[in-house]
Design brief:
The protein contains twelve helices and twelve strands. The chain is an alpha/beta fold and 293 residues long. It has three domains: 81 residues, Winged helix-like DNA-binding domain superfamily/Winged helix DNA-binding domain (Arc Repressor Mutant, subunit A, Orthogonal Bundle), CATH 1.10.10.10; 99 residues, D-Maltodextrin-Binding Protein, domain 2, CATH 3.40.190.10; 97 residues, 3-Layer(aba) Sandwich (D-Maltodextrin-Binding Protein, domain 2). Strand 1 and strand 2 form a beta hairpin. Keywords: DNA-binding, Transcription, Transcription regulation. InterPro entries: LTTR, LysR_HTH_N, LysR_subst-bd, WH-like_DNA-bd_sf, WH_DNA-bd_sf. This is HTH lysR-type domain-containing protein.
């Protein structure tokens, strides 16, 4: 309905006190200024200036239009300044595996906020397979996920491995020291969701050649896993970093024989370089630095 040029012309009439003065200041013909404002009033169906024998003044509607337009002009000038001076701003759609929300994520975001204060983050916590699909569909910009589920053809950078352990609530279960696989499979086990590689690794560790198959329950929420183990539902396979972040759960790591030990989780941070090269590199650098701390 109106453009920035229309608003700038209206502002010049207000600033210089009339059409003639605005014409002298801007170099536009007075008739051109008058005609443009008249056409704008006709298009919008409003009266911007009230005219009388002493000149023109803004109507109540005109004052509101100018006030609101000042905000738009300020935003336009800010965007142009940021773009032309290389300022990183806007919304970053960030996907994060829950394991990383208690370790790398807070340090990473704090660093990014300090270096790029105009960035805003929309954070999604989900399973790696779901986030991988969202990255392919351009529903997420940057993702921290399990390496084996990262989409092909994207830029990825490894993050420090996340070590895993078996944990129990001592108030509910007592196991031999060290516990063997048969000792573990005798109890309910709570682990990652069935579709994930950590769940498959648990099954592969426990199942071959055993007299009794393991009963492994899956949960996409590590907080739920912690709570279930704490309440005595079973034992859990949990990252060490998560248990350290939740000391009030009062869980104890189970000492296990070598064949029952769990492999570390391999995480990567990834993005589509064609769509998100600049922000992807910035977030990756912050994540790698946070992983060293």
């Amino acid at each position: 309905m109106f453009g920035f040029r229309d608003i700038e012309i209206i502002r010049s009439v207000v600033r210089y006190g009339g059409f003639r003065a605005a014409s002298d200041a801007t170099g536009l013909a007075q008739s051109a200024i008058s005609r443009r404002i008249r056409h704008l009033e006709d298009r919008m169906g409003i009266t911007i200036f009230e005219r009388d024998g002493r000149g023109v003044r803004l109507s109540a509607t005109g004052r509101r239009l100018v006030d609101e337009a000042e905000v738009l002009i300020a935003q336009r000038d800010r965007i142009l300044s940021e773009l032309t001076h290389g300022v990183m701003a806007g919304v970053v759609r960030l996907g994060v595996a829950e394991t990383m929300t208690h370790t790398i994520l807070p340090r990473m975001l704090t660093s990014l906020r300090q270096d790029h204060p105009l960035l805003r983050f929309e954070i999604s916590v989900d399973t790696s397979d779901q986030m991988g699909q969202a990255l392919r569909d351009d529903a997420l910009d940057v993702v921290i996920m399990l390496r084996d589920q990262a989409p092909r053809g994207i830029a990825l950078t490894p993050l420090p491995p996340v070590t895993m352990g078996w944990f129990v609530s001592p108030a509910h279960f007592t196991l031999p020291q060290p516990a063997e696989i048969d000792d573990l499979t005798a109890l309910p086990i709570v682990s990652f969701p069935k579709t994930t590689s950590p769940h498959r690794q648990v099954i592969e560790t426990l199942s071959p050649g055993r007299r009794k198959p393991a009963t492994v329950h899956g949960s996409a929420s590590l907080a739920t896993v912690l709570h279930l183990v704490q309440q005595g539902f079973g034992i859990g396979t949990i990252p060490h970093s998560i248990v350290e972040a939740w000391p009030h759960a009062m869980l104890r790591e189970i000492d296990v024989t070598p064949e029952a030990r769990l492999p570390s989780l391999e995480f990567v941070i990834c993005y589509d370089a064609e769509r998100n090269e600049e922000i992807g590199r910035a977030v990756t650098q912050a994540a790698v630095a946070a992983g060293r701390e």
